[in-house]
Model the fold of this input.
Amino acid sequence: MKRFEEIPHTADWSFRAFGKDLAELFENAAFALFALQGGLKCVGDGAKEATRRVEASGIDYESLLVNWLSELLYLQESHHEIYPRTQIDELSPTALRAQVFGTPYRQLDKLIKAVTYHNLKIEPTLGGWKAVVVVDV
Amino acid sequence: MITKLNFERIDEYVWQVPPSFRGDMRVPARLYASEDLLEDALQDESVKQLVNTATLPGIVKYAIAMPDIHQGYGFPIGGVVATKLPDGVISPGGVGYDINCGVRLLASRVRVDEIAPRLKDLATALYENCPSGVGSEGSVPLNAKQLDDVLERGSEWTLKHGYARREDLDRTEEFGRLGGADAAVVSKRAKERGKDQLGTLGAGNHFIEVDRVAEVFDANIAERLGIFLEQVVVQIHCGSRGLGHQVCTDYVNDFQRAVREYDIDLPDRELVCAPLNSPEGQAYFRAMSAAANYAFANRQILAHHIRRSFEQALAGHVRDCDLIQIYDIAHNMAKVEQHEIDGQPVKVCVHRKGATRAFGPGAAVLPDDLRDIGQPVLIPGSMGTASYVLIGTAGSMAQTFGSTCHGAGRVMSRAKAKREVRGETLRDELAARGIVVRAGSMPGLAEEAPQAYKDVSRVVEVVHRAGIGRQVARLEPIAVIKG
Done:
């Protein structure tokens, strides 16, 4: 299964993430966030990953997704790391717990400023779930 | 799907979607555009986003979009919405994540031919002295107390610490400080992101640009502002960095609950809002003001570094390497202002999302030496093209809550620009035209290619002809510094 695809947007960026279940959908949305910033070339150059624990909450799955991704952007800026690899341990409609694995970066192609609620949608598909997310760059 | 047929033509440059178009519109939606710019706007979702803003509770007159309108999130970029106090709403998404993103223009006293032999050294000094790029750290690390001071005092903090001159503050919107700011309602996370980013340019469409004054349209106003033909000037385009992004993120999230509490029904969750006089509305307004102050201080410290760079690269080579400030304006902000509606003065909350305040002559909030001519307005073009200096007009006060456009406006997605343009090729093309480029990221440069934007001259022509801003001067780049 494709992890995510980019959707054309004039000024900002939008992507559609996929997952066989909601946990995988959330992990793949996180992967998209760092892939779009050009972060994948930083991965696998032998740097040690830092494991961090993340908790997020929301009023529904959509707001939980925004808060999860926003938390990763906050961690990115605070620790100068990216988190293409994440693991959702617990997920309910209003809260999640996860482990995220940070890789340091020196230079990214682009910076995502924030994750928005615009056109935000999580929907079932034949093989699982998909989510549309618009980010501000 | 909105088409040209859904618009009424109010005037040569004013198009209106009537409230009958959609049941949830409270007021008409107005777009300032020429016929071809209207066609551009219909290519993406921006007009739908404009119509969505016409549903906000308390909105007065009409939802407005400028000719540089393009698709954003929630509001379109180029959107202006005024809501009537006390119970009209404020919307964090209507200000956007880069709170008080704005433009500052500094002017030298020398002509371009005087610095031409030193231009590459100047560009290098600017690139080295002004931290830029993703994850760049600032030159002014702050402890918690200092950061709170910056948030509450803005440019006044920079004056106290030797990064500003009194005259710089006089030539800054709101004199570089929004009085309603409160550091206590800015989250720990936002402060964490802001503590080591003061005095940084960031990435994306932010830049420092050295320009020459290529054309003067209004000699009197230009002279009053200190602008002359062939003069070397410098533009700074940036905002409140990670701190502002986090403030917006925090409050868009909090307001998801507030809209339920105040029973506000919206077509898009990014438009979440709360009455300005509610506890939620007040908290956001004070936090936004604090982030705006951070942005004013940020541009001021960059101006300080730019002055140092001019000194380093040009002292002993040109007769005068000083820079004076022409003006500093915000283009992502919500402000409480008084405007005339149906002949009566009314207090409103004006959201400008990718739009610029453009107060006309006589506005009480302008400094004494500008009050008779109006407020300078700075319109940066896309990289490698022209930028404009305008002046606010009586027309902008009457028509658009004292607002005008903010830039060129994108027409091509970043993904497409990156596919079609290589950063290195673009840099070489600009170099062939005599423009020196210092950029950290080539893919980042490609996304900002001039062909991804509308022609800024067409945008400025519309606002000039519609009377919501008057052309003073046109600038052309000679050096571009980007993250």
Summary: Chain B touches chain A through 46 residues (CB under 8 Å).
